[in-house]
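Comment thread on ticket #2218

A.B. wrote:
> Attaching the input chain for the structure job we discussed in standup.
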Amino acid sequence: MTELRIDIAGLPVAIRAHEPRALADLDAVYRRFATDAAPALTIDIERVTGFARERGPEYPAFARTLGADGRLHVERFDAEGDIDTGALPLHASFRVGPSANSLEACVRIALSVALPRHGALMMHASAVEHAGHGLVFTGVSGAGKSTISSLLDRAPARKIGDEIIVLHRPRDRWHVLVPPYLGPFDRTGIEHGTSAPLDGIHVLVQATRHARAPMSSTAALRELLRHVLVYVAEPRTAEHVLALVADLTRQVPTYRLEFRKDAGVAGVLGIAYPLGATPT
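C.D. wrote:
> Ran it. Output below, let me know if you need it in another format.
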């Protein structure tokens, strides 16, 4: 038996497999989140050489079915598995093909069910840190999440997250956390595990100007639910997610941010670069 025990936003997770090298794809990144705590989520992995079926129309998402026993069955051409949908602690098991991305996709699915039960959310977003606080950028595919965080990645700001972030409330305020996931971090310099208090969430709209306007809690709730990464094939997970996003939008300002692809957007975000250091 090989095992990775990690902590994601205070949620202890055990990822297990019988094959000695089954988790090797994750090891270098996920070991940075090591913990000895008893798991609130256990994920059993079986790596299957040659696992393949016809790619379904839902790809890259997973087809999902809720069983009478409350377990969520998920499957796509390169993986299949079952996830508890009760209260913590939860258990999930997957049969996965040889791709590291397939393996991580299964881990994300299990986390997307467990984290909301622990008071945390995964979101498709990027983030920067400025003056000790985090600014999050989300939006539809192609809205510019990676673009804007890269444009702002100059002192006194720095890019801290891209693609997937976790939002959680460890004490009395929400924070942004960079979770473990496989990505081009050697090139970007992003550090897994980076965390910062959350000052604002920005829903991106590409435009010909830079402008930021606050969103109402209702509009923010509706918009942010589109970008939370979660499999809500059953009502209990949906209830947790809805309650968390409602709390998030009450406590953290959410803005509609129009921007064109230049670093002048820093001005509407309150980021001032030293003279001559503004990126173009």
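A.B. wrote:
> Thanks. Noting for the ticket: The domain at 122-269 is CATH 3.90.228.20 (Phosphoenolpyruvate Carboxykinase; domain 3).
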